[in-house]
């Protein structure tokens, strides 16, 4: 029987749906039962990470995120994921509050980039909160890599808010300019480190550097984990279809 994956979602809701959609597409399946069972808490009421980390005025979302994780585990999730890079600023508290593995999208992405692109600095296209908390910087530093960010934090933040508000076309020029800035500064590769940016990433095909989407890395990790968690007897049943 496949292990249930719990999703701490709602940050934002469209990004949560995107994770589910990409996971569905990435899972080899001939029948409904071949897909990965999910428990999804699309909690749109998680206190704003931007207000807490950037503006320094908002409520700490840690208790809400920890509560979500614990409820998902109590409901039967054997693995947790969180398709929000910024929320990984609270990862230690979440992972420490449950007795099941919690995939770290940031660390998995750093490892994937380091394997595929071993040289040069890594650009980060993400919320300024990610830069402030240093989650990607720490993950890459462990691997001996430096990171760089677009200079104009507010402009990047405006792109995130535009996408959350359904104004994707307003965000695209900002992301294209940010990618060009990172390439000009010497980055051969950049991480799509915001799940809002993952929504528009397929439209950044003309970017002047390689883009690695952290959401895709998380999806691949989920598929790999799910395949490894199938009991041998069930694997035989599936292969015999």
Q: Could you please describe the fold and organization of this structure?
A:
This protein has 241 residues and is of the alpha/beta class. It has 12 helices and 7 strands. It has a 4-stranded parallel beta sheet. α8 packs antiparallel against α9. It is globular. The chain starts with a strand and ends with a helix. The C terminus is likely disordered.
Overall spatial form = globular
- H-E order: EHEHHEHHEHHEHHEHEHH
Task: Compute the average pLDDT.
Answer: 93
Can you count the helices?
Answer: 12
Question: Radius of gyration in whole Å, from Cα?
Answer: 18 Å
Main sheet characteristics: 4 strands, parallel
Distance between the termini: 15 Å
Question: Outline of this structure?
Answer:
With 241 residues, this protein is of the alpha/beta class. It has twelve helices and seven strands.
Which key terms come to mind for this protein?
241 residues, 51% helix, 4-stranded parallel β-sheet, alpha/beta, 11% strand, 3-stranded parallel β-sheet
What is the fold's blueprint, element by element?
Layout: E1 5-9, H1 13-26, E2 38-42, H2 49-53, H3 62-74, E3 79-81, H4 91-96, H5 105-116, E4 122-125, H6 128-133, H7 135-141, E5 147-148, H8 153-164, H9 168-184, E6 189-192, H10 195-200, E7 210-213, H11 214-229, H12 232-239
Parallel strand pairs: 1-2, 1-3, 4-5, 4-6, 6-7
Helix pairs in contact: 1-11, 5-7, 5-11, 8-9
């Amino acid at each position: 029987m496949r292990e249930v994956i719990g999703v701490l979602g709602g940050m934002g809701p469209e990004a949560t749906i995107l994770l589910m959609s990409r996971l569905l597409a990435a899972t080899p399946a001939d029948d409904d039962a071949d897909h990965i069972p999910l428990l999804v808490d699309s909690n749109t009421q998680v206190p704003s990470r931007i207000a807490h980390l950037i503006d320094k005025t908002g409520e700490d979302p840690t208790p809400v995120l920890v509560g979500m994780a614990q409820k998902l585990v109590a409901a039967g999730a054997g693995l947790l994921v969180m398709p929000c890079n910024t929320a990984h600023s609270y990862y230690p508290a979440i992972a420490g509050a449950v007795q099941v593995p919690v995939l770290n999208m940031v660390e998995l992405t750093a490892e994937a980039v380091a394997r595929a692109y071993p040289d040069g600095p890594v650009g980060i296209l993400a919320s300024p909160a990610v830069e402030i908390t240093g989650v990607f910087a720490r993950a890459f530093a462990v691997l001996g890599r430096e990171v760089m960010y677009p200079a104009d934090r507010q402009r990047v933040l405006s792109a995130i808010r535009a996408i959350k508000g359904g104004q994707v076309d307003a965000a695209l020029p900002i992301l294209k300019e940010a990618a060009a800035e990172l390439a000009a500064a010497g980055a051969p590769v950049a991480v799509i480190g915001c799940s809002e940016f993952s929504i528009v990433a397929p439209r950044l095909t003309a970017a002047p550097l390689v883009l690695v989407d952290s959401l895709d890395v998380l999806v691949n990790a989920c598929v790999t984990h799910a395949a490894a968690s199938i009991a041998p007897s069930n694997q035989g049943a599936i292969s015999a279809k």
